């Protein structure tokens, strides 16, 4: 009777701490970190469970619990639109109270953003977009920013006017026409035309 009582107590203790006792029920959260996910559409997969991960999330947790010594293999069932994600440490074996070594790293696709220039007969023009800039030479009929992230808002500003000219973006909402803005597409995109005229 005493042995039966002790065995019952041991079983109850194991039920509370299944990971330590190697119990049959899963109680470990399979989770990980996410970096630079700027686009929706990512779906992770493990043991038949599909887990959507939204843009801006920095972590994920599968709802299906695992137990100590269970193997896991996290893969990407669907890439986000306009980006590519990879997984580091996505394959392993649960050996603690949480399996959380996986890291999903994402890179948003980039495309060139360009526009037409008319009347640029002098040098000195400087266009900027955030930390990036370009200085089209006299006689140039276009401008280009080589790498703009898919779906990102952008704003281009005339930082420096060319000598003796005044350049304005078509359709600009700024009083002097020195700014244009928009949203980058999922391919090479055309921005507003920049018209330059003598002052």
Quick rundown:
With 199 residues, this protein is mainly beta. The chain has 2 helices and 18 strands.
Annotate the secondary structure layout.
Elements: H1 2-16, H2 18-21, E1 29-35, E2 42-46, E3 49-53, E4 59-61, E5 71-73, E6 75-78, E7 83-88, E8 91-93, E9 98-108, E10 110-118, E11 126-129, E12 132-134, E13 142-149, E14 153-160, E15 165-169, E16 179-183, E17 189-190, E18 194-198
Parallel strand pairs: 1-9, 10-17, 10-18
Antiparallel strand pairs: 1-4, 2-3, 2-6, 5-8, 7-9, 10-13, 11-12, 11-14, 14-16, 15-18
The main sheet comes to: 5 strands, mixed
Helix content: under 10%
Briefly note the structural class of the backbone. Answer: mainly beta
Overall 3D shape: rod-shaped
The end-to-end span amounts to: 104 Å
The total count of helices amounts to 2
How much of the sequence lies in strands comes to over 45%
Order of helices and strands: HHEEEEEEEEEEEEEEEEEE
Q: List the uncertain runs.
A: 1-24
In round numbers, the mean pLDDT is: 88
Q: Using DSSP, what is the number of strands?
A: 18
How many whole angstroms does the radius of gyration measure? Answer: 28 Å
Keywords:
4-stranded mixed β-sheet; 18 strands
Describe this structure in words.
There is one protein chain. This protein has 199 residues and is mainly beta. It is built from two helices and 18 strands. The strands form five sheets. Strands 10, 13, 15, 17 and 18 form a five-stranded mixed beta sheet that branches. Strand 2 (42-46) and strand 3 (49-53) form a beta hairpin. The longest helix is centred in the first third of the chain and has 15 residues, at 2-16. The N and C termini lie far apart (104 Å). Residues 1-24 have low confidence and may be disordered.
């Amino acid at each position: 009777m005493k042995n039966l009582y002790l065995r019952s107590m041991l079983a109850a203790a194991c039920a509370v701490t299944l990971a330590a006792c190697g119990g049959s029920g899963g109680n470990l959260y399979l989770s990980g970190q996410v970096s630079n996910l700027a686009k929706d559409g990512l779906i992770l997969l493990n043991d038949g469970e599909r887990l959507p991960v939204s843009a801006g999330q920095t972590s994920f947790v599968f709802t299906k619990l695992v137990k100590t010594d269970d193997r896991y293999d996290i893969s990407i069932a669907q890439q986000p639109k306009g980006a590519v994600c990879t997984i580091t440490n996505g394959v392993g074996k649960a050996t603690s109270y949480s399996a959380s070594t996986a890291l999903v790293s994402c890179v948003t696709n980039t495309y060139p953003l360009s526009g037409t220039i008319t009347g640029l007969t002098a040098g000195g023009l400087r266009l900027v977009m955030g930390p990036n800039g370009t200085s089209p030479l006299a006689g140039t009929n276009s401008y280009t920013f080589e790498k703009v992230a898919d779906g990102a808002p952008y704003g281009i500003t005339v930082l420096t006017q060319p000598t003796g000219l005044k350049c304005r973006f078509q359709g600009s909402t700024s009083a002097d026409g020195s700014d244009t803005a928009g949203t980058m597409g999922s391919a090479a995109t055309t921005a507003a035309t920049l018209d330059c005229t003598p002052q």
